[in-house]
Amino acid sequence: MAHQFSPIKFDDMGHIRDSVFSILRNAILDKKLEPGQRLVERNIAEQLGVSRTPVREAIRKLELERLVTHIPRKGVIVSGFTKADIVEILLIRTSLEALICNIAAIKIKPRELERLDLLAMQISDEHRKGNFKKSNQLNDKFHEIIYRAAESPRLYDFLDTLREYIAKFTQVAYSKPGRPEEAWEEHKTIIEALRNHDSSGADAAAKRHVENSNKAFLEMAFEQR
User: Fold this and answer.
1) What's the pTM?
2) Tens-place pLDDT, residues 88-143
3) Backbone φ, ψ for residue 198 (5° rounding)
4) CA 183 to CA 45: how far, in whole Å?
5) Are the C-beta atoms of residues 102 and 200 closer than 8 Å to each other?
């Protein structure tokens, strides 16, 4: 049975194009829209309660991310998401996160370091309480502060395109026993390197953190099947 979308809430309409894109991409990543399934602009627009224009624009962005393919005489088809695709994204993420930490170490301000200290503790506390959704949201804020501290708009934009992938991968990685405790120690190491304005140290700490997160994700997502 085909997946049915719920209408976008009124509060979301100010960012309608982004909302439609996020909804469709998440549906593909969560496999609510399965490989080979056809996307029909008119049907999606009606279900979401929007015009066809933002749906068309969202589908174009999905094509750029290779999540859908336009096939002549068939229309737009969901491409699917393979392990090879995931490994490629993880590799890109590792390089970009290390680079942005390298740059942030030079520019980060005391108030940003204070927020990182607080968030690192909150992430650990919420996870220990079993509030996994909250801890993942806080983890996203932790990395967001570092991204913005680098004051590199283009690099920020590159990482922003991976944001939803990273959030989903991190959620799975954190389900591995012992991983949240490891991440807590890794966050502290990153903060310390940033506090010392140690670019190479921040680069290495971020790379190690992301590589460990990637490894945990792959183990939980594939090796336990």
Assistant:
1) 0.80
2) 999 999 999 999 999 999 999 999 999 999 999 999 999 889 898 899 899 999 99
3) -95, 95
4) 41
5) yes
